[in-house]
UniProtKB/TrEMBL annotation, chains A, B, C:
Topology in membrane: Multi-pass membrane protein
A GO term, aspect molecular function: glutathione transferase activity
Any GO CC annotation of this UniProt entry: mitochondrial outer membrane
EC number, as in UniProt: 2.5.1.18
Family statement drawn from the similarity comment of this UniProt entry: Belongs to the MAPEG family.
PANTHER family named in the record: MICROSOMAL GLUTATHIONE S-TRANSFERASE 1
Name of this chain's protein: Microsomal glutathione S-transferase 1
This protein's record includes keyword Heme: no
Main localisation: endoplasmic reticulum
Transmembrane segments: 12-37, 131-149
Keywords: Acetylation, Endoplasmic reticulum, Membrane, Mitochondrion, Mitochondrion outer membrane, Transferase, Transmembrane, Transmembrane helix
A Pfam cross-reference name: MAPEG
Quaternary structure (record): Homotrimer; The trimer binds only one molecule of glutathione.
């Protein structure tokens, strides 16, 4: 069996692995938040889930939408839309032998921006808090894409 | 050109590649399932698609929603929300030189849980079938995240 | 620190990195398109965003849905549903020592198909333009999955 210590001794890749595992775990937390609001507010999307709201004839009345649940779902979808390109571009960037401190700055800014975005979306904080958090994360990903294409373009 | 056999001779990475290709193909099947229900039930989201429901003035009446189509779409979105963190964390975990049999156990459990989740969502099976399938997949991803951060944390 | 030039001198991987960075950047553009239509048409999903539509008591009237905004959001979600399996399968495929010109053909076809899909969705073009673009991208991903499993199956 091959020893992969070579890859895992690469500091930029290890930093990417650590920060990205945290940002993906944060995204997974949104599923828990959705379930929490669905159960405490008795708001379900499927008839078979309504028994969690209470038994009996009227259980179907829990088949409805709710502002808070929809808000968490929008925050979750926004995470997906932004963390997927961050992960793809960041993985390739971290393997392209970037400057270590520049790379870590990118990963830290993205993690902070996405955590702040979630807080600003769920409380909610007044705008432009959420827009700015979104733009910081977006800019980090574009910056990594630009650096990657500048140094490694192969079409 | 460089020989990548080193990476592809790593058994944990090869196992991850095989199981993950299957789980991603399963997710792609959800697009086919959505199209199938849209065409057989004549339920479309875009005016330009309505001609698949039949010609003529009344084609616009197919611009509607349908319980079964929405169910498939929710199952698809749930796949995305869970397979994205599994892929990201699992890829990094499989590169971190994990114990082979532990790693394969994680990949197998996740694949089984997501297939069962889809079956439970589409039939549908009564709860808590779907919740349990979700929790198994969720737990597998968290377990890989924990193992990765424990052995390789670099912040 | 380890030298990663080995990986980045692999031509199939470099080609994957370049094409995928472009396709992920294209997906990120969908966020901008959504914001553009939300701001110009004054259509918002959150009460705290309505001040971008204008001040005053009536700002809440901008809390509504709009055909064009929903169209862009569907195109964005379709991107996510298709680019996530492409990225996962394509990354593993590009690391499996594929034939270089075959690999580049796959990446080019996928990039072209997704750009055409977005154009066909947003204008919109009459069907079957969008369906064909979807099927080309879908076929490329399945073809990579098939080649990967054929050469590297390890269960």
């Amino acid at each position: 069996m091959v020893d992969l210590t070579q890859l895992m001794e690469n500091e930029a890749f290890m930093a990417f692995a650590s920060y990205t595992t945290i940002v993906l775990s944060k995204m997974m937390f949104m599923s828990i938040a959705t379930s929490f609001y669905r159960l405490t507010r008795k708001v379900f999307a499927n008839p078979e889930d309504c028994s969690y709201g209470g038994k009996g004839e009227n259980a179907k009345k829990y088949l409805r939408t709710d502002d808070k649940v929809e808000r968490v779902r929008r925050a979750h979808l926004n995470d997906l839309e932004n963390i997927v390109p961050y992960f793809g571009i960041g993985l390739l960037y971290s393997l392209s032998d970037p400057d270590l401190s520049t790379a870590i700055l990118h990963f830290r800014l993205f993690l902070g921006a996405r955590i702040y975005h979630t807080v600003a979306y769920l409380l909610p904080l007044p705008q432009p808090n959420r827009v700015l958090a979104f733009l910081v994360g977006y800019g980090v990903t574009l910056s990594m894409a630009f650096r990657l294409l500048k140094s490694r373009l192969y079409l």
